[in-house]
């Protein structure tokens, strides 16, 4: 342990110290302030004669008289199964009034990269209970599937619903693997934090969860370590204890704003819109910690949530996130204004790994065909809505009106289910068949005839009307 009293400058969250020998990058630092308070920090930049330290707490009160101790180790997260049910702050310290954590291990928060050769392809279905996700953009174990939202939209309610309802279906589960949720909140308000905790406690979801809370009035630098602490905990539970872990991180926009603030304090040359040029690498370091390892029972699945500034999906944060992750779920402002809950816009949403997690033995044999037909029918309805604005509904054919009715029912019955309703995959697909049965049978050109014979409702109004027309 080395100790110095050679602080030369304090700039925002950064403290610059002269040293007489090189200090290790990412090394943990303790700064003793005059009133006896000790602040923690991390080495951000190191040369032969000085270091730049990012302080996790406020830099107020730090001056040239303060002592700086370099501890000779990087930051580590104390991990144990007993973390389940606990609430921690953004630096990993308990804030729920419970006992101190007695760790089984202390693991480096940077984590170890998964050998690509040892990665197992993400497969097997995770049921969120939300039809627009399970039926149309299925989440599979080991996937990273972000939520793209906007300011003022109910992404927090959607995040809580997923945390509350997500499960591994019983037929896929076994005695050796359990399901856990890691919830990392970054830069949220105290009101949002209270809402999160009230929901976790009211529903009992806290028992299988580890919650990390970084509030808006906490130092921005703390935001850069909160997701790493959460993912380190997830890796321990998944790869050493065999849990299937769902990691929800909200809001990644606040995380990236913290990167920009630190970059400005370091006087770095900015990249797109003032964000650091290394932001892509930094985000990849987080997102790529999702996955499965061959021969290991557990898995880590990620749902990062970000609010797109000005609802612009070409903004650097959603743009780079989209490059790294395997799809996206769009939360739509128009559907939200119509009262659709959750307001997930299916046409622009995508799960690139969906095909690996659905079908016979995973969800249901007709899932893939039904999803494809729903997409096609809803896209047709959306096109016809544009046409109605020009020529009026009366100018459309009976077939076109059937598709318009389908689009309305799809939003009100399939997508709109509220935040307290959990649907099984069978319930989701049954609702889908009820909607598709309102279309003439010959329109179902994306579904295998065998499935139409099994699931198509011949007694629906659409079928009866079509038969009468033929007569």
Q: Can you offer a commentary on this structure?
A:
Helix content is 33%, strand content 23%. The model is unreliable at 172-176 (pLDDT under 50). The protein is α/β, with parallel strands linked by helices and 471 residues long. It folds into three domains: 2-74, Thrombin, subunit H; 77-356, 3-Layer(aba) Sandwich (Rossmann fold), CATH 3.40.50.12240; 367-470, no CATH class. Strands 9, 11, 14, 15, 16, 17, 18, 19, 20 and 21 form a ten-stranded mixed β-sheet that branches. It has a seven-stranded antiparallel β-sheet with strand order 1-7-4-5-6-3-2, with no helix packed on it. The relative contact order is 0.12. It is built from 14 helices and 21 strands. It is elongated and about 85 Å long. Helix 10 packs across helix 11 (398-415), helix 10 packs across helix 12 (425-436) and helix 11 (398-415) packs antiparallel against helix 12. Residues 129-351 form the ATPase F1/V1/A1 complex alpha/beta subunit nucleotide-binding domain. Residues 7-72 form the ATPase F1/V1/A1 complex alpha/beta subunit N-terminal domain. It is a peripheral membrane protein. Its main location: membrane.
């Amino acid at each position: 342990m080395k100790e110095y009293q050679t602080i030369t400058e304090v700039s925002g969250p950064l403290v610059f110290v002269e040293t007489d020998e090189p200090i290790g990058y990412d090394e943990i630092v303790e700064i003793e302030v005059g009133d006896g308070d000790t602040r923690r920090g991390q080495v951000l930049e190191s040369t032969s004669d000085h270091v730049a330290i990012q302080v996790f707490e406020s830099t107020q009160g730090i001056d040239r008289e303060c002592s700086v101790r370099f501890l000779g180790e990087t930051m580590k997260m104390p991990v144990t199964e007993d973390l389940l049910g606990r609430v921690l702050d953004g630096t990993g310290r308990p804030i729920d009034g419970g006992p101190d954590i007695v760790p089984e291990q202390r693991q480096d928060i940077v984590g170890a990269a998964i050998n690509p050769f040892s990665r197992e392809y993400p497969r097997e279905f995770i049921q969120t209970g939300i039809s627009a996700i399970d039926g149309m953009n299925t989440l599979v174990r080991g996937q990273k599937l972000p939520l793209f939202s906007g300011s003022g939209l109910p992404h927090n309610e959607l995040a809580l619903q997923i945390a509350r309802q997500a499960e591994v279906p019983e037929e896929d589960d076994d005695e050796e693997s359990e399901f856990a949720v890691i919830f990392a909140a970054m830069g949220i308000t105290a009101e949002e934090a209270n809402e999160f905790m009230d929901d976790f406690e009211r529903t009992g979801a806290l028992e299988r969860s580890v919650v990390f809370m970084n509030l808006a009035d906490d130092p921005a630098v703390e935001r850069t370590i909160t997701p790493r602490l959460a993912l380190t905990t997830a890796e321990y539970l998944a790869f050493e204890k065999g849990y299937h872990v769902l990691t929800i991180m909200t809001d990644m926009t606040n995380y990236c704003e913290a990167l920009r603030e630190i970059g400005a304090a370091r006087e770095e040359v900015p990249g797109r819109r003032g964000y650091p040029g290394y932001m892509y690498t930094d985000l990849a370091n987080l997102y790529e910690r999702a996955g499965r390892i061959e021969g290991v029972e557990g898995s880590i699945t990620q749902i990062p949530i970000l609010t797109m500034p000005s609802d612009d999906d070409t903004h650097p944060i959603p743009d780079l996130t989209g490059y790294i992750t395997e799809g996206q779920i769009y939360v739509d402002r128009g559907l939200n204004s119509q009262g659709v809950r959750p307001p997930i816009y299916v046409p622009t949403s995508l799960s690139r790994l969906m095909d690996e997690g659905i079908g016979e033995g995973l969800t249901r044999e007709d899932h893939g065909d039904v999803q494809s037909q729903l997409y096609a029918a809803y896209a047709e309805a959306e096109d016809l809505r544009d046409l109605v604005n020009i020529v009026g509904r009366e100018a459309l054919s009976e077939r076109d009106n059937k598709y318009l009715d389908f689009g309305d029912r799809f939003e009100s019955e399939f997508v709109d289910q509220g935040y307290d309703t959990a649907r099984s995959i069978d319930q989701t697909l049954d609702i889908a068949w009820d909607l598709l049965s309102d279309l003439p049978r010959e329109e179902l050109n994306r579904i295998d005839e065998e499935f139409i014979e099994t699931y198509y409702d011949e007694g629906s109004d659409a079928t009866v009307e079509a038969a009468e027309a033929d007569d």
